[in-house]
C-alpha cells in the first residue's frame, strides 16, 4: 500500500549573514558591458598570448588606440576611455606602433587618452599595485595593458601556481580598485598549440583569452578566442598589417612601423597543415588537424576533454561544427589517434611513416 505524501509548507529562512545572498535567477538579465563589443568585457582580466613575432603587441596597440579614441574596432562598438599601456620591455617599438596608428587611423593627431609606462610593474607587489591605482585615480581609465607577463612577473616562477596566484591576485585587485579591464600580453610555450606559457592557474583565472598567431608565412595575424567566460566566443578571423612610413632619421634611413587593419577577413592559410605528431596519417584536412590539436591542447594542460568541450573549442575557432564534427572525430579514431571512454576523449600513441612510435604528451 503506497505511503501517502505529506505536504510540507516551506517558509524561506531568515538568514543572519553579511554574505550578498540572492535568490535563484535574480540578475539573469544584467547587462554585459564591453570595451569592445563581443571581444573585451568591461572590468575583466583578459589575455592575448602567442609566440614571439606573432604580432600580439600590435593587437594590444590597436585595441588600446581604439578604446582611447572611441573608434569602432572590427565594426564593433567601443566604450571610450583612457588607457594605460605598461611597456614592460621599454624601447621605442610601442610608441612607433602608436604613431603608425595615429597617422593611419587618427588623421595624424596624437591620442591624448593613451598613457605609457615605459617600465614593468609587478602585480604581485602591493607597492607596485598601489602605484598603478594611484596613476589611474582621477582619470576615466577603461583599460590597463601589461606587455608582457614575463616582464611584469619579476623574479618569480611562472610555472609555480603560488607565484602565478599572487600575480593574478594583484591583477584582480587593480581591476576591482580601478573598475578597468586588465589585458595581459603573454607568450605561448615551446609548443604554442598547448596554450600559454606557465602555470595552468593563469588560464583558469582569466575571464577572456585569445590566441594570436601568424597566417602561414604571410603578414596577417590570426585571432582566435580560446576562452570567453560569460558570452559567446567571436569567430576566428585574420587581420592584415600594413607598413607605415614614420620619419627619416639622421642617417637618411626611412623608419617604418606596422598598423593592424581591423576590418579582418576569413583565414586563408593557417600554419597547422604540417604537425609532426601526425606524420604518416593520410587524407587530413585543416578541420582534422585543428580538431586533433584542440584535443592535444586540452590533454596536455590537464583540462577535461569531452566531445562537447572540444566541439565548443572548434566552434570558437570559427569552424562549422553543425554537420561534420562527428565524422572528423570518427576519422581520428579510425586512424588510431584517439579513443573514447563514453563522452571522454583520450590520445593514443601512433607510428609515423618509418614505424617509430610517437608518444603524445
Automatic annotation (TrEMBL):
The keyword Ribosomal protein does not apply. One of its GO terms (molecular function) is helicase activity. Pfam families: AAA_25 (PF13481). Coiled coil: none annotated. The keyword ATP-binding applies. Keywords: ATP-binding, Helicase, Hydrolase, Nucleotide-binding. This is Helicase RepA family protein.
Amino acid at each position: 500500500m503506497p505511503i501517502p505524501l505529506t505536504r510540507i509548507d516551506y517558509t524561506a529562512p531568515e538568514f543572519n549573514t553579511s554574505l550578498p545572498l540572492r535568490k535563484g535567477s535574480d540578475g539573469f538579465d544584467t547587462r554585459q558591458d564591453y570595451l569592445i563589443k563581443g571581444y573585451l568585457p568591461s572590468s575583466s582580466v583578459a589575455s592575448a598570448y602567442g609566440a614571439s613575432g606573432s604580432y600580439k603587441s600590435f593587437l594590444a596597440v590597436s585595441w588600446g588606440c581604439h578604446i582611447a579614441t572611441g573608434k569602432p574596432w572590427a565594426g564593433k562598438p567601443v566604450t571610450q576611455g583612457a588607457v594605460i599601456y605598461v611597456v614592460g620591455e621599454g624601447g621605442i617599438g610601442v610608441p612607433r606602433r602608436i604613431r603608425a596608428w595615429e597617422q593611419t587611423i587618427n588623421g595624424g593627431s596624437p591620442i591624448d587618452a593613451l598613457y605609457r609606462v615605459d617600465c614593468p610593474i609587478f602585480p604581485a607587489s602591493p607597492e607596485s599595485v598601489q602605484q598603478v591605482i594611484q596613476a589611474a585615480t582621477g582619470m576615466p581609465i577603461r583599460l590597463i595593458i601589461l606587455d608582457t607577463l614575463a616582464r611584469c612577473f619579476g623574479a618569480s616562477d611562472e610555472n609555480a601556481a603560488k607565484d602565478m596566484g599572487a600575480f593574478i591576485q594583484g591583477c584582480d585587485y587593480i581591476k576591482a580598485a580601478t573598475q578597468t579591464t586588465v589585458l595581459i600580453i603573454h607568450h605561448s610555450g615551446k609548443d604554442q598549440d598547448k596554450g600559454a606559457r606557465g602555470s595552468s592557474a593563469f588560464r583558469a583565472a582569466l575571464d577572456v583569452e585569445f590566441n594570436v598567431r601568424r597566417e602561414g608565412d604571410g603578414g596577417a595575424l590570426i585571432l582566435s578566442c580560446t576562452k570567453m567566460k560569460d558570452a559567446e566566443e567571436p569567430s576566428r578571423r585574420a587581420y592584415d598589417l600594413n607598413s607605415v612610413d614614420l620619419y627619416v632619421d639622421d642617417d637618411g634611413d626611412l623608419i617604418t612601423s606596422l598598423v593592424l587593419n581591423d576590418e579582418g577577413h576569413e583565414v586563408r592559410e593557417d600554419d597547422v597543415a604540417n604537425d609532426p605528431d601526425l606524420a604518416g596519417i593520410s587524407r587530413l584536412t585543416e578541420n582534422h588537424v585543428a580538431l586533433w590539436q584542440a584535443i592535444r591542447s586540452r590533454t596536455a594542460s590537464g583540462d577535461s576533454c569531452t566531445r562537447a568541450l572540444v566541439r565548443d573549442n572548434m566552434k570558437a575557432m570559427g569552424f562549422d561544427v553543425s554537420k561534420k564534427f562527428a565524422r572528423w572525430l570518427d576519422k581520428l579514431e579510425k586512424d588510431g589517434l584517439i579513443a573514447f571512454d563514453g563522452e571522454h576523449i583520450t590520445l593514443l600513441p601512433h607510428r609515423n611513416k618509418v614505424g617509430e612510435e610517437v608518444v603524445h604528451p
